[in-house]
Design a protein that fits this description.
52% of the residues lie in helices and 7% in strands. By secondary structure, the chain is mostly helical. The relative contact order is 0.13. The chain binds acetyl coenzyme *A.
Length: 428
């Protein structure tokens, strides 16, 4: 039975259908609100209550701490799948057969060179540039080398664009790091797997043959899977909204990278390590920083704590905490910053301020610790997040275009001056 929501404004009643998702989530469909009511709009800063689309890609239940890609739980995928399989799953909707995966891998490898002229663009950036700014610019620059927007009515054109960006993005990300470290650029090795090749492109030395390390590559693979999609978060919504103007895939992704950069979103993983380092340098007094985070007159926030949707626990944080401990122990690394992180989490999880506000460690609280153990520089952490989120952005962009969604264009409630007469400059 279709449910109806009734809205009453100044004695007039309006009815709106309630739609139900496959996980029984309810949404009031207000598509006709303005037309029915003569222009009444809703106001919802930060879209905390607004569903921008119907999507079949990722389900998450923030209260129960559930995250699933195309119906598969994140716990199972992190344990049993590899990143390339997850890319295929997110983008095309089903886990690939061996033949499909083999073809996907081969097609990506065939596109894994970027135009040599891209190097000139990379050269133009100062070494001090933040890698996220460089990556966003290089992704934008790719548009110039691959002109034309994607013909979304052609399955082949869509597939080509997707394979191209999955192939070239890791090259750009790795080159961004190598430029900063004054290392010669590496072109990768197509005989390696996707994640192994990424690691090689980042870390190979010009005078040494590359030796893969299974612990390192498995940890990297898992981190990328955990970051691969998270439904309508800030960067994904950005990708969808930019793409909704029919801007091409690469242009939409470049905007998504910029959105991810912010410290309240993907930039949090860098901010977490910087915070933990600062606490260590200040003597490791975790209680002092918990007090600062609770003090309303202090702008300090406990980075890596809290989440817009997870109000119980972040299921990715659980997996990653365990993984951080394993990686550090397998690689024989003792990192005092991990002890500070554990200390902070222990105190915060029992503290009324955090309990009442349902503030739990999020994925970024532990991911930086693994990235550090893998030798990834702090300012590259958000780039690693972008590498993981790439298939999610692509899947969401593809879904939005295939569903022929309208251009994204929210409304507002105007609170500025009413009409007034222009005053000549001599009379102001
Ligand atoms: N430290 C201290 N207090 C916090 C924190 C924190 N990390 N996060 C939220 N609060 C407090 C707020 O001050 C507020 O308190 P009040 O009700 O007394 O005013 C309350 O908790 C609610 O906070 P909001 O900012 O309204 O929550 P919102 O859902 O809008 O924000 C966010 C979520 C941005 C993630 C926030 O918790 C935060 O800034 N966390 C730190 C940054 C971070 O780790 N970001 C990564 C997110 S995960 C990701 O992008 C992959």
């Amino acid at each position: 039975m279709t449910k109806i929501a009734t809205l009453e404004i100044d004695g007039n009643k309006y009815e709106f259908p309630i739609i139900k998702g496959t996980e029984d989530e309810l949404g009031i469909d207000i598509k006709t609100l303005r037309a029915d009511t003569g222009g009444v709009t809703t106001i919802d800063p930060g879209y905390k209550n607004t569903g921008s689309c119907e999507s079949a890609i990722t389900f998450l239940d923030g209260e129960k701490g559930i995250l699933r890609y195309r119906g598969y739980s994140i716990e199972e995928l992190a344990e049993k799948a590899d990143f390339l399989e997850v890319c295929y799953l997110l983008i095309f909707g089903e886990l690939p057969t061996s033949e499909q995966l083999e073809k996907f891998d081969k097609d990506i490898k065939e596109e894994s060179q970027v135009d040599e002229d891209m190097k000139k663009i990379l050269d133009g950036f100062p070494k001090s540039a933040h890698p996220m700014g460089v990556l966003s610019s290089l992704t934008s620059a790719l548009i110039a080398f691959n002109p034309g927007s994607v013909d979304v009515d052609s399955e082949e054109a869509m597939y080509d664009a997707i394979v191209k960006i999955l192939a070239k993005f890791p090259v750009l990300a790795a080159w961004t790091m190598r430029k900063k470290k004054s290392l010669p650029l590496d072109y990768g090795d197509n005989s390696l797997g996707y994640v192994e090749n990424l690691h090689k492109m980042m870390f190979s030395k010009p005078n040494q043959s590359y030796e893969a390390n299974k612990i390192v590559n498995d940890a990297l693979d898992k981190l990328l899977i955990l970051h691969a999609d998270h439904e309508q978060n800030c960067s994904t919504s950005t990708v969808r909204i930019v793409g909704s103007s029919h801007a091409g895939l690469f242009a939409s992704l470049s905007a998504g990278i910029s959105a991810l950069w912010g410290p309240l979103h993907g930039g949090a993983n860098q901010a977490v390590i910087e915070m933990l380092e600062a606490i260590r340098e200040d003597g490791g007094d975790t209680a002092k920083y918990i007090a600062k985070a609770k003090d309303k007159n202090d702008p300090f926030r406990l980075m890596g704590f809290g989440h817009r949707v997870y109000k119980n626990f972040d299921p990715r944080a659980k997996i990653i905490k365990k993984s951080a401990e394993e990686v550090l122990s397998d690689l024989g690394i003792e990192d005092p910053v991990l002890d500070i992180a554990k200390g902070l989490a222990e105190v915060a999880l029992k503290d009324d301020y955090f309990v009442q506000r349902k503030l739990y460690p999020n994925v970024d609280f532990y991911s930086g610790i693994i990235y550090r153990a893998l030798g990834i520089p702090t300012d590259m952490f958000t780039v690693m997040f972008a590498l993981g989120r790439l298939p999610g952005w692509i899947a969401q962009w593809r879904e939005m275009r295939l569903r022929k969604e309208p251009i994204g264009r929210p409304r507002q409630i105007y609170i500025g001056e009413n009409h007034r007469k222009f005053t000549a400059i001599t009379n102001r």
